[in-house]
Amino acid sequence: MDQPTGPQTEFSLVQLLPNMLTIVAVCAGLTAIRFGVQGDYMPAVLLIIAAGILDGIDGRIARLLGSSSKMGAELDSLADFLNFGVAPPLILYFWALRDFRGLGWICVLVFAVCCVIRLARFNVSSKSEEAQRDCAYFEGIPSPAGALLVMLPMYLSFAFADRPVLPQIVICLHMILVGLLLISRLPTWSFKTTRISRENVKFFLVGVAFVGAALLTFAWVTLIALCLGYVAMVIWAWIDRERPSSR
Prior knowledge:
Blueprint: H1 13-38, H2 41-65, H3 70-97, H4 101-126, E1 137-139, H5 143-150, H6 152-159, H7 168-182, E2 187-189, H8 201-217, H9 219-242
Antiparallel strand pairs: 1-2
């Protein structure tokens, strides 16, 4: 006779690993804000990058372990808003915009609002059947990519320490532009659907090793290159997406 099944009351540590990684990412984002308040900007930026890496792997680990849950999805979304919608613009504000009176803070608010709208739209679309028809593309740039791009002025300053910091108005305009890209309808590739052929796996792994070594050795120059490469990829994805409709 079948036993009645109820809610699961015990979880293994392996099943909780994705949520543990998300919590660690939240701690990284909060600590980044603390470093920003203290004026330690380099470790603050590196903690945001670490939070982005954790965000990239926690969901995949959950799917591999079969431990995906509604709570985990909501936790991940809230962590994304903190780590990519709040911490990066705040760090930029502490770094260069505190003396720009109210305009710098307005730009921080605009970016944060754009990020939360982008996350809300993604959460709604991911639950709809229509989202499955073209899952090779996102609409607008994802929030982790937005966080990576919005801190580009800091990478430039850290990489070329002998050069003056970009003008405050340029940083403000850059922040607003990236925020608008978050809520745009611009198609961006979803790496979740990317497949690597067997014969190219070895080259892909060598490339990952190269990028990892470059990040450890020349962090700021590598982050600049990644930002420029991502922008080029977005432009190419837009051209590739529009090409069939022009036939």
